[in-house]
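[agent] plan:
  1. take the single chain provided in the ticket
  2. run structure prediction with default settings
  3. attach structure tokens to the ticket
  4. add a short note for the reviewer (M.T.)
[agent] executing step 1
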Amino acid sequence: MPIFALGLNHQTAPITLREKVALAPERFGDALESLKSSGSADEAVLISTCNRTELFLTGDETSLQRCTEWLHQYFDLNAGALDSFTYCHRDRAAIRHLYRVASGLDSMVLGEPQILGQVKRAHSEARQAGAVRTSLDRLFQTAFSVAKRVRTETSLGSSPVSVAFSAVRLATRIFADLAGSNTLLVGAGETIELVARHLQERGVRHLTIANRTLANARSLAEEFEARAVALADLDHVLPEADIVVACTASTTPVITFQAIQRALKARRRKPMLVLDLGVPRDVESQVGTLDDAYLYTVDDIGAMIEESMKSRRDAAAQGEAIIDLQAEHFVSWLKLFDAQGAIRGLRDRADRERADQLQKAKQALAQGRSPEEALELLAHGLTNKLLHAPTVALREAAKRADVDLLRAASRLFELDDPGVK
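[agent] step 2 finished; step 3 output follows
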């Protein structure tokens, strides 16, 4: 059964499109249930992060087409809206792509570690939804092992490079006294936690964490000796912020143009750095038009950190070699798995024919025919049934002069026919 990878990412689609097909964690179950009920694929795993939305599936070309249609329908997009921005990999290329994604080699920030956890969660969600069986389950398990090898056997993870780290480094370039700045973090997820950790390492003392669920903001604030506020109180704390970093699971912006405009007025036009790390975006794009607001999105940050990636690219080359080898190993396993399925199918068919012919022989005995006649009937019927399909196929091969198939049949059935050697 072919394996496909269908999706779009930061290399093929702008943020304006990626945010339309981004899934919040609480929507994964619903999306997988919708995909299953559509009958689009035999197995499927859906990955959705800030920088990519991808479907890994097993099926045929028809399954691939149905999954493409499902993506458009589920995200309420016009037919064909994604076609110019999506990619599709099959079999070995799909396997290799997943290994690269899990290892961080396909990330905006080369080698960033967060993606592996996101891929693991996607696999777990698919298992809970009953959307994976042997092939994809085995593929994702091997992807986790490959990602671990890439990180431990190369220097890819030796230096802290991530969107969170890069965002903080950008802030250090803009603020001479980063430690003395007031920083507002909007959200309480993993990315915001990493930003808080990097800021703390830089000596930042004045941190405020705003979140829709105040308890989550307080929990994170306690770890970093920060102040916690509810998202509803954002207008009260925005004017204090020299730096705003936002990354939430909201499907609509949580920081509006008017809110930043009011905050800048209260700050007497003192500049504000706004880092929007969310996809979908957490800050209205019009904020970038304000004279004293400096807005950067994840795409902006990705472009700015390109210069620092040389050492990681050297390590990535080693990682690619590991991935190529492991992809070949999985392709070999997949061929063996498919062959085992064919063997089971052949034996099941033979068992059915045996039972059918045995029943006919028993009926012949019950009708008074001799044991010799019944045995002859059994042997003749079983031979004809088992050899009918191969005989037809070989006759057609002979008509087409398909020497390869004739030679394969000679090896398979241990024939000694000099005409096909």
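[agent] step 4 note for reviewer: The chain has a mean pLDDT of 88.
[agent] ticket updated
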